[in-house]
Write a structure and sequence with these properties.
It contains eleven helices and 14 strands. Strands 1-4-5-3-2-6-7-8 form an eight-stranded mixed beta sheet, with helices on both faces. α5 links the parallel β7 and β8. α2 packs across α9, α5 packs across α10 and α8 crosses α10.
């Protein structure tokens, strides 16, 4: 069920939500949190679809905040709120409210969102892209227990990670960190089986991928070892190699789906390590709302402490240089002539 409201207020939106629930026969509220999405028109559809899929695991009231840019001075002075209320099959397992803020109201989004939050329920704010420099001090971010950004969507992911480290506050997290959860679990399990000292490591992945940088920083911080960052054609993170005193541990995923775990003295094992959709990443982050101390330590470790991305290897010459002995033989033959 969808209800369109033009030039409305937060009070009228709440009334529309109650009326919509009664109309479809579900007057009770069974949602566990409020998810606020701060996005634009271009990315709103994908963000709402991912949030709706994630709500099947965490029934939520989803509030999408879309700030409409006003071009003329008169339009910027006129404050207007348009809304779309979705309940039932159109909103996953919860409720969805799409807010479009025009004019001066776009600078006061928190005053519109605050009356729409579920009472006595946690609040999660997600910026699919264009996250503020300090999410915890953002007016909408200040309402939340969990603030989710995505460094992968930034133009300069490395600089974005540095910004996340400078402004970190308890409750901050990033989907670039969530993407490497299966990798961290697999590598930790491999070390539990070997019980050997790791002396160095290499993380291989495509350029400008913040997940690769975070995994490298995690290894360097937790194991206190030098970690080299090398480049590949992807997709995403492709391999991790850990040098130990008993041999090499390799987790290799060349196709973005199936990985191979190789350890000294054991047969190679195929491991399902598929690249996950945004909805799965969101669902994982909404399972826990307490501060992620491991993410904090990792992002504060600093990209600059790594060896830096390696340059692609130069192609080898098609004609190898002749051995020294062959050169001497050729010189003698030339002198005899």
């Amino acid at each position: 069920m969808k209800i369109d409201l033009t030039e409305t207020t937060s009070s009228k939106i709440n009334q529309a939500l109650v009326s919509a629930r009664r109309a479809i026969g579900t007057p009770a509220i069974g949602m566990v949190l409020t998810l606020v999405i701060v996005t634009d028109e271009e990315n709103a559809y994908d963000a709402l679809k991912s949030a709706g899929d994630a709500s099947r695991e965490h029934p939520s009231r989803i509030i999408a905040v879309i700030k409409r840019v006003s071009r003329s001075p008169r339009s910027r002075r006129d404050a207007r709120l348009d809304a779309e209320v979705r309940v039932g099959s159109d909103a996953g397992t919860g409720e969805t409210v799409v807010l479009r803020l025009h004019g001066e109201l776009a600078n006061h989004a928190q005053s519109v969102v605050l009356p729409l939050l579920l009472p006595d329920a946690p609040v999660v704010v997600w910026w699919p892209e264009d996250a503020p420099a300090d999410p915890a001090k953002d007016p909408l971010g200040a309402l939340a227990q969990r603030r989710i950004t995505d460094a992968y969507s930034a133009e300069r992911p490395g600089d974005e990670l540095a910004a996340r480290a400078r402004s970190y506050a308890p409750g901050d997290t990033d989907l670039a960190w969530t993407r490497i959860t299966p990798w961290r679990s697999m590598l930790a399990a491999a070390l539990d089986q070997q019980h050997v000292e790791v002396v160095s490591a290499t993380v291989e992945g495509e350029s400008e991928n913040p997940s690769c940088e975070l995994l490298a920083m995690w290894l360097a911080d937790r194991l206190k070892i030098p970690v080299e960052r090398t480049l590949s054609d992807g997709p995403g993170l492709t391999a991790v190699r850990m040098e130990t005193k008993n041999g090499v541990i390799v987790l290799d995923r060349p196709d973005g789906s199936l990985a191979t775990l190789s350890m000294q003295g054991q047969p190679d094992r195929a491991v399902a390590l598929k690249r996950r959709e945004t909805a799965e990443l969101l669902a994982e982050e909404m399972r826990r709302l307490d501060p992620d101390n491991t993410y904090e330590a990792t992002v504060k470790f600093g990209v600059e402490k790594l060896g830096g991305p390696a340059k692609p290897a130069e192609p080898k010459s098609a004609e190898p240089a002749a051995p020294a002995a062959a050169k001497k033989t050729a010189a003698k033959k030339a002198a005899a002539k």
